[in-house]
Model the fold of this input.
Amino acid sequence: MSGFVSPVCALIFAPLLVGIINRTKAVVAGRRGPPLVQPYWDVAKYLQRGVVYGEVTSWLFRLGPVVNLASLAAALLIVPFGGLGAPLNFSGDLIVLAGLLALGRFATVLAALDTGSSFEGMGASREVHFAALAEPTLFLALATLARVTGSFSLTPIYQGFTATVWVHALPAVVLVAMTLLILELVENNRIPVDDPTTHLELTMIHEVMVLDHSGPELAFIHYAAALRLWILGSLLVGLVVPFRSGSFWLEGTAMLLGMAVLAVAIGAIESTMARYQLIRVPQFILGAATLSAVAFIIILV
Amino acid sequence: MLPFLGIIQALGLLTSFALLGTRSKGAGPQWLAFQGLLCGLVPIIMHADGLTTQVVLLAIGNIVLKGIVFPWVLLRLRARAPYHREVVPFIGIVGSTLFGIPVLALSVWLALRMTPALKHAPFVMLVLSIFLIFVGLFLIVTRRKALMQVIGYLVLENGIFVFSAIAISGTLLLVELGVLLDAFVAVFVMGIAILHINSEFGFMDVDQLTALRG
Amino acid sequence: MFLDQSIAAMLILPALGAALCLILSRPRHVLTAIVGISALQLVLAANLWTAVLGGHGFVTAAASWLYVDAFSAFHIIVLALVFVLSSVFAGVYFTNASSDQTFTLTIARRYGALWLGSLAAMTLVLVSNSLGIMWVGMEATTLLTAFLISLYPNRLSLEAMWKYLLICSIGIAFAFMGTLLAAASLQVGSAGETAFFWTNLASAETHVDPTLMKFAFIFVLVGYGTKAGLAPIHSWLPDAHSQAPTPVSAMFSGFLLNTALYCIMRFVPPARHALGEHFASGLLIFFGTLSILVAAGFIVFQRDAKRLLAYHSVEHLGIIALGYGLGPLGAFAALFHTFNHSVCKALAFFAVGRLGQEFGSHEMHAISGALRADRLWGTALLVSFLALIGVAPFSIFMSEYQLLRAAVSAGAWLPLALFLLASGVVFVAALRHVIAMAFGIPTATVRVARNGSAAFLIVGVAMGLLLLLGLWMPLSLSKAIGSAAAIVAGQP
Done:
């Protein structure tokens, strides 16, 4: 039963994460900012609106947001929440996770290409470019964790991170955590990779792809983005909070607090860093890949 | 002892990758300073159970020279050099970083080969020292700026220093002092050479030192 | 005969001399001082040599931190001889310097201090028992001589200096790694300061870990081999030799390279002890032959006389390394060749240096009719080149002949064939170069000065030695070389 805690938490709290990030940025900038629950209101508002489709779009365009949301929701079933296991676990589920994340992105990209707009095509091209680098990095990071705990499934991996294992593999853990943090920024199109608030088309990546969506589909997209933020975030937080007491409430609370801290940290990063030049982004991702490669090699022996 | 060494290893590897991947002009000496600091800590950790004044003094000397004096000299040199271009090495930033990964694997392999003979040398430090030596050589060979070449030389020195700290059980005061002194003089000699080159050529790009061939 | 003090004196004397040079007030005085101190060093070296050969075969001082046996004593005497000759030549060379390279007081002081400083450093390498201190001496040599290359800072000399500094620093760093590995290979039994003593490493009672010793020897060979100019890491050598002032080039070729090779050879007995007969000698033969071949290739296409001589150094160091690899007979030939090459190469550099000043360039096409223009240096050029390429009756012919015999008796047919092939190439190529320089009509711009007695003296001494040892080897010398060879190659 406790296995369903993690997907339920995710479905409930994911938009809150976005809210915390936005509030942090507002506070740092000296503004009051929107209320923490603003992302929920946004989603609800979009759900009530009608939909507008371009004349040239086909069923692919309509399929995109649905598949995206569906694949991320499915991914929630195999992502553990720290020591709290996921409802499903089987050997090799970490590959399925990467596949589901990729499927969601693929659907979004197809939808963007389907509009026939050059701007959206440009955004799709950039998105795929960075994803092609980010995905092997994710694999390397997960492989390192698998190597540390000797398991090839996410739930046992995260449950295996007891305090002793954690201290023993500290250097690798630190390196993988840094990788996951960078991936969290890359995969969710945050600063310094992409600016989620900008609407200057030439520099946008993710936002430019979804310009043509409206109504409930836009709500799906926003909600899916929050879920994506949650999934990668829980991989990171589960790693750096080595709390494996076995007590359900203690671990759950620690994880939720950890997620909140992560959201504040992302907000702080976004407030203090400038967006990289586009050509620098691959180098940034490469840096992450290097970190996890180093972790993998030093843990190998 | 081992967790500390593990962290030093991870940070040491990171500084090396940072040096491989840096394009900013001022970052080189700073990463080098951090690396020098880390390497200086190694002998203290190695001899943590029987700390003699000799070990401590040598470690402090190393930290002061490699963590403070050398980077400071390099930063001063850089300040006097009229750079106009960005640091564009012969092999690009991405290539250099990617180079690091197989070399790290190679270092691990070499360390595995050596470790049966060096039983009491911690494996993690053996890997680090071999890796630093490779990275130093790579920086010397592929960088255009004389300054980065000196940094590469010092990375190489760091690697050898770590090796000497872990592989030799007794400390050899006289030899260590000689080594330290030599590194000290070498940096100044190279610094003076850079200044000479700079005033004569007006730049520090080693790739333009190509008159002598064959 | 106060031998302890005399070893110490050989270190202190040049060091004090270096300090003295900094306070002398005339360039001429500096030139006199370096001759005087080098000559004193030669006297001390000869005294030490006789003591080593006459006594137990070794002399130690300072609680065995300093240790001289027949092998090092032989090198010390060659070192001192090369320094005396080059110091005298420095007087000749700098007083005739062209207008753009005036020998001012600042330059003279710098020159004198660095010159004697590097003499002290090289002596330290040769007399120290600790491999660590030996390494320190080598590094000091590198740093001191770097500024001798760019005594007159200009674009080319700075480029040469930078390459020398960087490449040799890497090499020396590798050598240090090798030294550490050698010390680590000892750990099982003893530790502490004596771990670095090569007398300790080489002794039969010491247990040495073979894996580490193997790594150690490779690192040392590559590291010091860089400094010795063994191919393929000789790239600094022609640049440095061609851009340095000629007395410095002579010292580089005549002894600096040998110092590095000496350091390698100190690791050979422990390596043989731990790894058997063939590991070290196989590597020496390989790198020696490779150097000979590479140098032969470059010699054909040289245009600058000093670069040509630099590649000759690569070749001859290769020959010496090859000799060391060929067992006791080969080691004898190698040591004899060391002496011959040092004297001959110094003479060749002297001749090229002076002729270069007179013709205004070291480019070979600019030098012609040297024999007519300047009889003394023209003759020196011709004789030294003939000796270098192995023409009888000069002594290099004899040592190369002994090397061939050693190769035959060791059954090393492939290196032998390659050596003969490369020697043939070098013979033809260098002969073509030297004939063009020595004979023919001098160019109109030549500016000949009258040669003083000092010039006649060094040319006479060097040519006399080459000729004498080519015709007749004194029994005592042969014995001395034999006992030195036995140290690095075992008893025949």
Q: What stands out?
A: Chain C has a mean pLDDT of 89. Residues 1-129 of chain C form one domain.
